[in-house]
Amino acid sequence: MLRYCLIALTLIVTTPARAAVDIQPVTSPGGFEAWLVEEHSIPFVALELRFKGGAALDLPGKKGATNLMVGLLEEGTGDLDARGFAREVEGLAASFEYDVYDDAVTVSARFLTENQDEALALLRGSLVAPRFDEDAVERVRGQVLSAIRSDLKSPRDIASQAMSELLYGDHPYALPLMGTLDSVEALSRDDLVTAHQNSLTRDRVYVSAVGDITADELSALLDSLLADLPEATVPLPGPASLNLPGGTEVVEFETPQSVALFAQGGIEREDPDFFPAFILDLIIGGGSFESRLMEEVREKRGLTYGVYSFLADKDQAKLWMGSVASANDRVAQAVSVIRDEWSKAAEQGVTAEELQDAKTYLTGAYPLRFDSNASIANIMVAMQMDNMPIDYIATRNDRVNAVTLEDINRVAKRLLDPEALTFVVVGQPVGLE
Q1: Quick one: what percent of the chain has pLDDT higher than 90?
Q2: Is residue 277, in this structure, part of any structural domain at all?
Q3: For residue 249, how far is the Cα from the chain centroid?
Q4: Looking at the chain, which terminus has fewer C-beta neighbours within 10 angstroms, N or C?
């Protein structure tokens, strides 16, 4: 019954007014910093941890070590094996999720106030002293290998990996996050212990909390939870030197439909032109059915079910990317239309009506993102990692509305680079070489 209670609490939707969140900075006696939003109407806390570094910290020849290690954090600690740990977490109606990305290891915890101490003791054990039992290592290794084999048969995953290799060269981003069949097979328990020490470090952690907890309680929690983690000893990777030759690279793969990814250089979030670029992306292809790419590629020509673009903000690489899938005999036309729209936007910019529609959509949709404690905690920890000001939530829509037509069209000329727009197409495309 408690488990279903937690699920219900997690899914509770607040009103749009919650976008006006009151964020408190908290610093513990041990020097850990966090952002807190107190919400005492529900006896529930959402806690988010982010450790900077992620899979990019894998040592040479050990690709996939961080991913495999993170998959084992919930497989036991102390006297509890994998089953015992899962049983204890469920008995407390708590929820822990662990994940890894190129630039971060993420940990999400949800727990009832009445079970806070017990839940945090389990969470601390999983972070500080995971067991890495042999049977658990082999079971999770098997799951990872199965996922890698599946990716090797997926046109989209093949395209993603081919694009990464083309873009990033010898940077860690070029290697698959999960590793390869050979690299994962070769990983030892010692490799996992090393990955744990390199990835979960006290001086690269970011924390946010939302819910039934005070600043003093969060301060004590931070020291108890994180004080025994090691200091970082492995440097973060440096900036990636992007290879964007333009043109199209084709990877032959037997499938009735080709998948195409495209990329050009992006923009730093700290750049004064970030918001004009952000709005420009929405107008061109940013996930809306009203975007130019959806109109030209899908609605007018019926070449795809979906096409989109986005600003990709990795720590060490800023890209403007997108994707489309189309039948082998039509994908060349889809690629051509995307190139034409990229050039058109660069040369002619956008209209006042397009800009106003984009502003209306962005400002109206933004409060809807703050629909639960968990979503607010997730947004806050991302803000910290991206060095955003603590008042960003309150000022974000003002920043959107401040963008003028002159701003966005100047940025279109500055950033859109049709000559560097690079495509990777996986499939059997007709008319592309």
Answers
A1: 93
A2: yes
A3: 26
A4: N
Domain annotation covers residue 237: no
Other Cβ atoms closer than 10 A to 149: 10
CATH number of the domain residue 299 falls in: 3.30.830.10
Specify if 107 maps to a domain. Answer: yes
Same domain, residue pair 121 and 184: yes
**Those residues with Cβ within 8 angstroms of residue 398's Cβ, 6 or more apart along the chain or in another chain:** none
| Secondary structure (H, E, C), the chain | CHHHHHHHHHHCCCCHHHHCCCCEEEECCCCCEEEEEECCCCCEEEEEEEEECHHHHCCCCCCCHHHHHHHCCCCEECCEEHHHHHHHHHHCCCEEEEEECCCEEEEEEEEEHHHHHHHHHHHHHHHHCECCCHHHHHHHHHHHHHHHHHHCCCHHHHHHHHHHHHHHCCCHHHCCCCCCHHHHHHCCHHHHHHHHHHHCCHHHEEEEEEECCCHHHHHHHHHHHHCCCCCCCCCCCCCCCCCCCCCEEEEECCCCEEEEEEEEECCCCCCCCHHHHHHHHHHHCCCCCCCHHHHHHHHCCCCCCCEEEEEEEECCEEEEEEEEEEECCCHHHHHHHHHHHHHHHHHHCCCHHHHHHHHHHHHHHHHHHCCCHHHHHHHHHHHHHCCCCCCHHHHHHHHHHCCCHHHHHHHHHHHCCCCCCEEEEEECCCCCC
Q: Both 269 and 405 in a single domain? A: yes
Dist. CA 87–CA 69, nearest whole Å: 21
Instruction: Give me the residues of the chain with pLDDT under 70, please.
Output: 1-19, 287
Query: Are 74 and 204 in a shared domain?
Result: yes
Shared domain for 253 and 349, answered yes or no, is yes
For the stretch 404-413, pLDDT in tens is 999 999 999 9
Q: Whole domain around residue 255: which residue ranges?
A: 248-427
Q: Is the same domain home to 327 and 409? A: yes
221 and 289 assigned to the same domain: no
The answer to whether the beta carbons of residues 36 and 126 sit under 8 Å apart is no
Please give the pLDDT value at position 241: 97
Which amino acid type is present at position 69?
M
Residue 2: predicted pLDDT? 36
The residue among 226, 256, 276 that closes a domain is 226
